[in-house]
Amino acid sequence: MTNIVLFGPPGAGKGTQAEVLKEKYQLIHLSTGDMFRYNMKNNTELGALAKTYTEKGHLVPDSVTNEMLKEEVNRQLKSNPKGFLFDGYPRTKDQARVLTAFMTEKGTEVAAMVALEVDDEVLVGRLLERGKSSGRADDANEEVIRERIAEYYRKTDILKEYYQGEDKYYGVNGVGSVEEITERLSAVFDKL
Ligand code: ADP
Q1: Could you say which DSSP state residue 47 is in?
Q2: Tens digit of pLDDT for each residue in 147-189?
Q3: Which of 91, 99, 157 to mutate to test ligand 1, by most ligand atoms within 8 A of the CB atom?
Q4: Mean pLDDT for the chain?
Q5: What is the pTM of this model?
Q6: Does CATH number 3.30.420.10 belong to domain 3-118+158-191?
Q7: Which end of the chain is less packed: N or C, by CB atoms within 10 Å?
Q8: How remote is the CA of residue 142 from the centroid of ligand 1, in Å?
Q9: Is 30:73 a contact under the CB 8 Å cutoff?
Q10: The dihedral of CA 22, 27, 33, 39: what is its sign?
Q11: How far is it, in rounded angstroms, from Cα 23 to Cα 66?
């Protein structure tokens, strides 16, 4: 299997690119944000818990997120996938460690972290724009958007170093048209 972590701050375009790349490379796209939104929409217990964090722009606790992710990976493994495209996970050092151990347990590994690099002010603008149509409560409020970006720098950004330490980090310019960015990402994916 070839497993890739698509990385970047909120609004970097991970979800948009994942939709294209999962088809192109036949990978299973796993977005923890989508999983939480699915649970919130369906009023599950997990959704109710997640909402108390997402609505403030904070991360959901690692134990909850890790369990949810593992369960979904286990479910998907039954169909013998070519690999996973992780989107929005891992987002903390604890999550990265859990993912490494879990992949090892499954006889595979994370091949690379491919990061979309975008300036903060561009991110805020994109998220506010998305909020007009996405129906996402966490995109509708500038304060929540800024808190998500702050949370990214507090807890997530350091994962670059984690994967750099394993020689698995690839940064890509995330500003441009969707097609241009897909091309830049594909140039990295093709090497993996
Ligand atoms: P974005 O990257 O645009 O902020 P996501 O859709 O990836 O949005 O995530 C939405 C929210 O779901 C996050 O703000 C956070 O509260 C929660 N979430 C998603 N992924 C994780 C994760 N790996 N760990 C903890 N919380 C997460």
Answers
A1: H
A2: 999 999 999 999 999 999 999 999 999 999 999 999 999 999 9
A3: 91
A4: 97
A5: 0.96
A6: no
A7: C
A8: 16
A9: yes
A10: positive
A11: 25
